[in-house]
């Protein structure tokens, strides 16, 4: 039996995208929460809590995009033109927030500018990612190996709803990260925000999930026909379980629990989308196997990925370990 | 302003604009990362505080430049898909895995160790910290290797076949990666990055020598930079010459454009030093030329015949004027760098390296020269490849996304505005950091609460940073 390389690669790309969403999710979330913490002191601590790791987090986005080009070139060349505007907006947002990590410390007079750049850039990037997700779920028309729609097709009520959903979800990740990494007033405030965003996130997940089956008949079928319908029961139950852990975590003093529960929520949401999509790479017409590059390309890169991704996970874990623990506001800022 | 432009032209402008910004930062950070690793190694070895002080000074600058490199790079990797989707679909099976390896072997390495390098000295201790610095430097070099393999494959494609869907498919990965122009391009680009950095470091050292701010540190960096210039500039000229000969073999039209040879020269081609290429009339006006020298350089024979653009159909000519000039700018700067290197050697021999104001002024003037040469070099390479994206195989006009011109125009305008604002501000901050070399003798490096935490906001160990905050 030949190994199904496209399938393996679809799993790897999905892993990269998921890693991106949860890792950059919390540091984009920090930016999204900036406006709620007007004190310079708090903002310094918030930024310091992600400064050593944000670049690594964002690299998963490069792996997702670069990997797509390598192993599913057809999907890459359909999706990016179709989502042209949200992609460009995301890139511009990432520029503003990325440079803010350094620029903000380089000027006193201009600091407010880079605070705005950090917050605005993070929001723009998150919102655009949500829109892109929604537009992909909606489906992309393809004729002759190319995108066949117009350049505003991505803009629909549904994609705007997913845009807000991601914005809220990242804010939840950010606030639970702060609960885990900070102390005192800042952490208390993060708790209050987490409490609100966790209700909002679960509500948003509910709305999007109920909306999705009505976009395309295949999704409806997927979620309400045997045997996949099992997931229609399991996933919501698990979501509620995470929700309960989140709530108790926020109230209790187990500071890592809310963050881990929020991560699990994202994993579940992601799994839900995966279930709807499979076996399509670009719904409604391009499957994983249609989009895959020739096996020689897939195999060549798979050797590297099988060997390197574990190593990457190890030293990335090490970098997190070096900067573990609570950030002491007395030490960590100027 | 853009009505008369079609999507292809706009996409080309957009690619050229964004990649030109991007390449500026790697050119600097590849060199600077290696320089930082050298400084830290010297500090560990000689235990001389001056190296740590310099390390901290340049580390802060590195952090800003690196950040700009990362965000501008992410734009590049998505732009293949937004604007060049047909190219991506066709060439993805070949260039994609190479860029995938770049991410896996280089970008994660850099990003993973960057945090430790910038903020972690007091958390992990000097040895592990040096390892982190080294890994970052090593990562930048690996990154250059892969991306240059990609670019070189587009210049001189090898080891591929085609499938029914019209995609380029790999037949022999070894041939794909070690395609004919790759070794030359890799050597030339890495040397270019080192030279660029050497001239920036040299200019900062020279500037502070002129101002007499911090003689000990400025002398050390100036001297290190001038050694680089003296040694690397001649090697670069040699490497460039070899690169040119390789190009003559594999992309003759590019060399014809660089040389301004519209016509063939059956018995010895002249070297045109300057002149105004006139593509309409197919001649170089007001040419100042040295007879037969071009044949001597390219063929090592005064009378060797050299073909001109007249042997190539008009619609396959690269734009001669751009290539002609950008090549001369690069070569001119290469020789100017050689000049500075030799001059500094002479001053060193005379014992006036630290005191020669004229040398210092010249070095300050040459500070940005590397960036100009790098851009000029890339323009020669890329414009000289036209009208192809994959030389001889895929036309630029056939590579473009099915995307409406207004979408490209709008995003182009957005990029132009954002890049000038954001990278303009970054350049301003870098220049300001460079200006603020704290005076000798320095306050104790390890004072203040910042460093004990290990979680420093920004690469704060540098004094440059402290002064940036208390400065006004
Ligand atoms: C991985 C591939 C790759 C790499 C490393 C580079 N380029 Fe490139 N370049 C392309 C891939 C490419 C391309 C996708 O093939 C383009 C887009 C349109 C075209 O004709 O070729 C291109 C076009 C292009 C053009 C426009 C040429 C024209 O349309 O006349 C310029 C000026 C540059 N590039 C400049 C650069 C610079 C300054 C680089 C330094 C990093 C660079 N390129 C690296
Ligand atoms: C079109 C071609 C290019 C693409 C698509 C590209 C892509 C990228 C991306 C995505 C990053 C950010 C990585 C991160 O997240 O850490 C990056 C950074 C970098 N790139 Fe490029 N790049 C291109 C051209 C080049 C060239 C020609 C070189 C050098 C020869 C180069 C050298 C680097 C280096 C050293 C970095 C690390 C960041 C820095 O040093 O500032 N790149 N590139
Ligand atoms: C005077 C000596 C030099 C010669 C003869 C020379 C020659 C060349 C040639 C022939 C090319 C085009 C190769 C091709 O497209 O196939 C090139 C490209 C390039 N040059 Fe130079 N060069 C010189 C000096 C420099 C200097 C001083 C720098 C920078 C500090 C530089 C940076 C570059 C870069 C970045 C490229 C594009 C990448 C590449 O194709 O290698 N060059 N050079």
What is the strand and helix layout of this fold?
The complex is a heterodimer of chains A (334) and B (472).
Chain A: H1 5-33, H2 40-50, H3 54-71, H4 73-82, H5 84-103, H6 111-138, E1 142-143, E2 146-147, H7 157-181, H8 184-211, H9 217-224, H10 229-251, H11 257-277, E3 280-282, E4 286-287, H12 288-291, H13 295-322
Chain B: H1 7-46, H2 49-83, H3 85-119, H4 121-155, E1 160-162, E2 168-170, H5 173-177, H6 182-211, H7 215-250, H8 252-259, E3 271-278, E4 283-290, H9 293-299, H10 320-350, H11 357-365, H12 369-385, E5 388-390, E6 394-395, H13 405-435, H14 450-453, H15 463-470
Antiparallel strand pairs in B: 1-2, 3-4, 5-6
Helix pairs in contact in B: 1-2, 1-4, 1-6, 1-12, 1-13, 2-3, 2-7, 2-13, 3-4, 4-6, 6-7, 6-11, 6-12, 7-8, 7-10, 8-10, 8-12, 10-12
The complex binds CIS-heme D hydroxychlorin gamma-spirolactone and protoporphyrin IX containing FE (2 copies).
One protoporphyrin IX containing FE sits between chains B (19, 22-23, 25-26, 29-30, 66, 69-70, 73-74, 76-77, 107, 110-111, 140, 143-144, 147-148, 189) and A (55, 58-59, 62).
Shape of chain B: globular
Q: Numbering strands along the chain, what is their spatial order in the largest sheet of chain B?
A: 1-2
* Unique ligands: CIS-heme D hydroxychlorin gamma-spirolactone, protoporphyrin IX containing FE
| Total number of beta strands of chain B | 6
Largest sheet geometry of chain A: 2 strands, antiparallel
- Overall helicity of chain A: over 70%
């Amino acid at each position: 039996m030949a190994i199904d390389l496209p399938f393996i690669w679809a799993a790897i790309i999905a892993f990269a995208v998921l890693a991106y969403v949860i890792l950059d999710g919390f540091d984009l979330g920090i930016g999204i929460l900036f406006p709620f913490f007007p004190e310079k002191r708090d903002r310094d601590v918030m930024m310091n809590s992600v400064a050593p790791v944000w670049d690594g987090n964002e690299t998963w986005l490069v792996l997702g995009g670069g990997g797509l080009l390598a192993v599913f070139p057809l999907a890459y060349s359909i999706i990016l033109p179709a989502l042209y505007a949200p992609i460009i907006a995301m890139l511009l947002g990432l520029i503003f927030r990325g440079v803010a990590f350094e620029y903000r410390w380089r000027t006193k007079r201009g600091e407010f500018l880079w605070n705005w750049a950090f917050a605005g850039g993070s929001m723009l990037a998150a919102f655009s990612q949500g829109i892109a997700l929604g537009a992909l779920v909606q489906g992309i028309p393809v004729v002759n190996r190319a995108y066949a729609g117009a350049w505003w097709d991505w803009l629909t009520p549904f994609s705007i709803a997913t845009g807000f959903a991601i914005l809220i979800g990242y804010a939840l990740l950010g606030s639970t990260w702060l609960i885990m990494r900070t102390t005192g007033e800042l952490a208390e405030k993060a708790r209050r925000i987490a409490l609100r965003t966790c209700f909002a996130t679960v509500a948003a997940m509910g709305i999007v999930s109920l909306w999705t089956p009505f976009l395309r008949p295949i999704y409806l079928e997927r979620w309400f026909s045997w045997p996949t319908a099992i997931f229609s029961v399991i996933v919501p139950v698990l979501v509620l379980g995470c929700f309960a852990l989140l709530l108790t975590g926020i109230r209790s003093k187990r500071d890592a629990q809310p963050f881990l529960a929020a991560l699990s929520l994202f994993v579940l949401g992601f799994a839900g989308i995966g279930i709807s999509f499979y076996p399509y790479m670009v719904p409604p017409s391009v499957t994983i196997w249609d989009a895959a590059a020739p096996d020689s390309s897939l195999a060549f890169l798979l050797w590297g990925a099988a060997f390197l991704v574990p190593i990457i996970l190890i030293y990335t874990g090490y970098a997190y370990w070096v900067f573990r623990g609570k950030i002491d506001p007395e030490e960590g800022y100027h | 302003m853009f009505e008369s432009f079609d999507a292809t032209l706009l996409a080309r402008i957009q690619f050229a604009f964004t990649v030109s910004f991007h390449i500026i930062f790697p050119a600097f950070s590849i060199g600077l990362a290696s320089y930082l690793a050298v400084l830290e190694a010297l500090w560990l070895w000689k235990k001389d505080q001056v190296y740590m002080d310099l390390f901290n000074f340049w580390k802060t600058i590195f952090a800003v430049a690196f950040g700009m490199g990362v965000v501008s790079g992410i734009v590049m990797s998505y732009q293949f898909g937004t604007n060049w989707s047909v190219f991506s679909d066709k060439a993805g099976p070949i260039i994609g895995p190479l860029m995938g390896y770049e991410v896996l072997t280089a970008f994660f390495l850099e990003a993973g160790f960057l945090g430790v390098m910038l903020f972690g000295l007091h958390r992990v201790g000097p040895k592990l910290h040096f390892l982190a610095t080294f890994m970052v430097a090593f990562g930048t070099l690996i990154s250059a290797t892969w991306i240059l393999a990609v670019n070189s494959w587009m210049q001189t494609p090898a080891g591929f076949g085609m499938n029914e869907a019209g995609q380029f498919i790999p037949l022999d990965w070894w041939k794909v990666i070690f395609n004919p122009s790759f070794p030359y391009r890799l050597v030339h680009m890495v040397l270019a990055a080192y030279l660029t950095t050497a001239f920036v470091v040299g200019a900062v050292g020279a500037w502070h020598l002129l101002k007499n701010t911090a003689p000990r540190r400025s002398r050390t960096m100036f001297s290190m930079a001038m050694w680089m210039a003296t040694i690397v500039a001649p090697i670069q000229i040699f490497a460039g010459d070899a690169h040119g000969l390789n190009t003559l073999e594999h992309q003759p039209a590019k060399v014809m454009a660089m040389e301004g040879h519209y016509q063939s020269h059956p018995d010895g081609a002249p070297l045109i030093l300057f002149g105004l290429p006139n593509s309409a009339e197919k001649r170089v006006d007001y040419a100042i030329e040295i007879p037969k020298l071009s044949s001597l350089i390219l063929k090592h024979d005064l009378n060797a015949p050299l073909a001109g653009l007249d042997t190539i159909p008009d619609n396959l000519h690269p734009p001669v004027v751009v290539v002609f000039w950008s090549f001369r700018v690069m070569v001119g700067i290469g020789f100017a760098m050689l000049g500075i290197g030799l001059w500094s050697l002479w001053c060193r021999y005379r014992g006036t390296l630290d005191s020669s104001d004229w040398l210092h002024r010249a070095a300050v003037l040459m500070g940005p020269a590397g960036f100009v040469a790098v851009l000029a070099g890339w323009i020669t390479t890329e414009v000289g490849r036209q009208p192809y994206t994959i030389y001889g195989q895929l036309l630029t006009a056939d590579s473009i996304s099915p995307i409406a011109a207004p979408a490209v125009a709008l995003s182009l305008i957005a990029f132009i505005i954002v890049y000038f604002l954001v990278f303009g501000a970054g350049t301003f901050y870098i220049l300001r950091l460079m200006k603020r070399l704290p005076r000798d003798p320095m306050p104790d490096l390890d004072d203040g609460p910042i460093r004990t935490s290990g979680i420093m906001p920004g690469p704060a160990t540098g004094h440059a940073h402290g002064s940036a905050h208390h400065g006004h």
